[in-house]
Amino acid sequence: MTKIEKKFKELKNKKEKGLILYLTVGFPSIDKSIEIIKNCEKNGVDIIELGIPFSDPIADGPIIQHTSSEALKNGITTDTCFQIANELKNEIKIPYLFMTYYNPVYKYGIEKFVEKCVESGVSGLIIPDLPYEESFYIRKMLRNNDMNLIYFLTPYTKEERMKKILKKGNGFIYFVSLAGVTGPRESLNLNLIIESLKKIKKISDKPVALGFGISNKEQIKQIKSYVDGIIVGSSFLQKLIENEDEAIKLIKEFKEELSY
Amino acid sequence: MFPDKKGKFGIFGGRFVPETLIAPLEELEKGYKEIVKTKEFKEKLNNLLKEYAGRPTPLYFAENLSKYLGFKVYLKREDLAFTGAHKINNTIGQVLLAKMMGKKRIIAETGAGQHGVATATASALLNMECVVYMGEIDLERQKLNVYRMKLLGAKVVPVTSGSKTLKDAINEAMRDWITNFETTHYVIGSVVGPHPYPLIVRNFQSVIGKETKKQIIEKEKRLPDYLIACVGGGSNSIGLFYPFYKYKSVKFIGVEGGGQGLNTDKHSATLTKGEKGILHGSFSYVLQDNYGQIKITHSISAGLDYPGVGPEHAFYKETGRAEYFSVDDKTALKGFHILSELEGIIPALEPSHAIGYLIENKDRFKKDDIVVLCLSGRGDKDVLEVARIEGEL
Predict the structure, then answer these.
(1) Residue A174 falls within a domain, yes or no?
(2) Which of A158, B181, B232, B300 is most exposed, with minimal Cβ within 10 Å?
(3) Contact map slice: A 99-128 vs B, CB within 8 A
(4) Rounded to whole angstroms, how far apart are CA atoms B24 and B21?
C-alpha cells in the first residue's frame, strides 16, 4: 500500500474526508514554500500537491497561471522542486505529490524523474495532460516504486472509459467537478456532479477526491458525503496572495467541514 | 495511411490533453468522419471554395524568377485565395463542419491575424458567433487585422498571459474550449494540436497539393522534382506535400524562420533546433529549455513565430521524407524584394523564407529541375512592417 492509499484508509477509519491542497512550488518564494506547507499540515491538510510550474498550463485558470509564472520568474526549476521535496521528507509526515504537465517530466527523462521522486519522498504524480492511453509506462514505473499516478475523471467521461480508468487507477481518482479550468466558482452544477459521482462509486470503491472550482464551505457541505476528499488550490492561493493568515484560516474551515 | 487510429504519425501526434477535452475531441473525430464524406458537405464545401474563396488558385510559371535562379519555378498562388492566404481553405471547411455538427459558436487563436480574419470571414458567411483570441503584443503589431476582424463581426479578446503571443492565444482558446465545448467549435489554424486536428487541417489544406498535381501535369506532363514551402505550424506546407507523399521522386523542402540566426535565442526553427516534446496537445518537436519550459520565439514573420510544429512534419523529418532548413530574417527580406521586383508579386514574409532558400541554395538545383513553391499569402499585411524595418517610414 502506498502512502496515499494508507492516508485514505486512515481517513476512512476516522470517518473523515481528506483535504488535499495544491500549491505552486516557489510561490511566493522558495523559503516561504516550506514554511507554508508545514503550517498547512498543522492546520489539517491531509495531502499536499506540489505544483512544478510550467510555462503553458492549459488546464489552469488565471490564479495558478499567475503563481506559475511568478515561480518561474523566481527561478524555480524541476531540480529546485526536488530539493524542496527532499527537505519536506524530514519536515512533514503527510504524503506529498507532484503535479505538473507532461513536457517537464518528459524533458527531464521519465526514468530520471521517477528516480528523483523516490529519492525525495514523493508519493505520486498528477499530470493533467497525460491521458490514460499514454500513461501505462509511467504508471507501472511509479507503482513499482510504491507511488501512484493519479487519474482524472469528469462528468463528461463516457461510462466505458470511466470503467477502464477506474480499473487501473490507484491512489485516488481526481474528479474534475466542471467543464473548465482551475479556479474558484461561486456555484457548481451539483446535480451533474452528484449523478456522476454516484456512477463512479457504483463501479469502484477507490477513493475519489473532487477538485476544480471549490471556493467555500457551503459547497463542501453539499458534496462531501459523495467523495473521499476535496482538492483546493486556487481559492487558497488567491487568499495567500493577499494574506497568509487568511489562507490558513480557509484551510482550517474547510478541514473542519470535512471532519464530521 | 497516417495518422493511425490513435492519431499518431509514427511516434508523433496523439492526444495529450486534460481529461475534460477527451469527450469533445472524440465527438469532433466522429463528427468529422461522418460528415465530410456526405454528399451535402462535399457539395457545399466545393461550391464555397470555388464561388467564394476563388479556387482553384493558379499554378503560375515564374519565368523571370526561373531565369534568375537557373531552374524552373512554379508558384502555387495561394496569395490569390480570398482573404489573401491559404488559411481560408481550412476555416471554411471547419466552420461548415461545426455548423453541420450543430455548434453555435466559433473560437480561434491568431498570431498575425490572418487565421483570425479567415475564421471571422467564414463565421460571417455561415452566420456563426465568432471569438478570436490574440496575444496582446500581436494585437499591437497587427492593428489593421484586428479591425478587419471587428468589421466581420468577430469579438477579439486580448490575451495577457505568458508571452502574450500566438502560443498563449492557443492556450487561452483551449481554455475557452474546455469550458464551452458543448456549444462551441475551436477552429485551430494549423496542423497542430491534439488528434484529430492535425488530420482535419491537413485534409482541408490538401486542396493545395491536389490542384498542384493536376496543374503541373497539364503544364509539364510530369511531376515536379521539388516542393518547397515555409513551415510555422506547417499547414500550407503539409497541404502542398501530402498529396505527393507516395511519389518518392518528388522531394519536399520545408523552410522555418531562422530569425536573427540559429546561434541566437531569437528564431523559430522548431524542427531544425528544437527537441521532442509535448505542446498544445501533441507530441512533436518543440523549442524548449533544459527543464521543458517552452521558449519564446522570434521571426520577422508573425506566421512562423511559434515554438511548436505539426506532428506530421516531425514524422516527415524523422523518416527523411522531407528536409527542413531555416532561413534568417535578412534572407527572407531578400526573397521578399526579389519576387516583388522580378515578378510584380509582393509575397507575405512567410513564403519569402522559401524564396530566400531558393536564392541562397540555387546551386543545389539542376537546370531541368521543376520546383513548385507554395506562395502561401500576399504581402500587403507586411508592407508597413518591412518599410519600418528598412527605415522607409
Answers:
(1) yes
(2) A158
(3) 101-108, 128
(4) 5
Q: Is the peptide bond before A28 cis (omega within 30 degrees of 0)?
A: yes
**Residue in this structure with the C-alpha cell 508545514, named with its chain if needed:** A38
Using one digit for the tens of pLDDT, what is the confidence trace for B48-102?
A: 999 999 999 999 999 999 999 999 999 999 999 999 999 999 999 999 999 999 9
The residue among A55, A154, A189, A193 with the most chain B CBs within 10 A of its CB, best to mutate, is A55
CATH of the domain at A72: 3.20.20.70
**Which residue in A104, A128, A131 is closest to B15 by CB distance?**
A131
Residue by residue, what is the 3-state secondary structure of B31-57? HHHHHHCCHHHHHHHHHHHHHHCCCCC
* H or E element that contains B284: strand B282-286
A32-36, Cβ contacts within 8 angstroms, sequence gap of 24 or more: A33/A84, A34/A84, A34/A87, A34/A88, A34/A91, A36/A240, A36/A244, A36/A247
- Residue A255 domain-assigned? no
State the number of CA atoms in the 13 A half-sphere of A174 facing the CB. Answer: 28
Model confidence pLDDT, tens digit, residues A102-144? 999 999 999 999 999 999 999 999 999 999 999 999 999 999 9
Instruction: Judge whether A243 lies within some domain.
Output: yes
What domain range is A41 assigned to? 3-250
Check if B43 is active-site. Answer: no
